[in-house]
Amino acid sequence: MSDQAENNPKSDPWEVTSLKLRRSTRRAVKIYAAEHGKTMQSVLEEALQRLLTERSTK
């Protein structure tokens, strides 16, 4: 994702999706989010962005 899209929410709107997570993974994300004052959505978004950025630089 480009910096421009990250800074302009209208150019990159949220899209509703559905996915399955293992119960233990969901619980770990939920706990992490609560401990850090974040939402599960923000934790997962950050994690996926890091993964994609890391993969694209290799």
Quick overview of this protein structure:
The chain has 58 residues and is mainly α. Helices cover 60% and strands 0% of the residues.
Q: Which key terms come to mind for this protein?
A:
single chain, 58 residues, mainly alpha
Helix and strand content put the structural class at mainly alpha
Number of strands: 0
The span between the termini is 16 Å
Strand content range: under 5%
The geometry reads as globular
Q: Give the biggest beta sheet.
A: none
**Unreliable sequence segments:** none
Note down, in words, how this protein is organized:
It contains three helices and no strands. The chain is an all-alpha fold and about 60 residues long. The model has no long low-confidence stretch (mean pLDDT about 90).
Lay out the secondary structure.
Blueprint: H1 3-7, H2 23-35, H3 40-56
Helix pairs in contact: 2-3
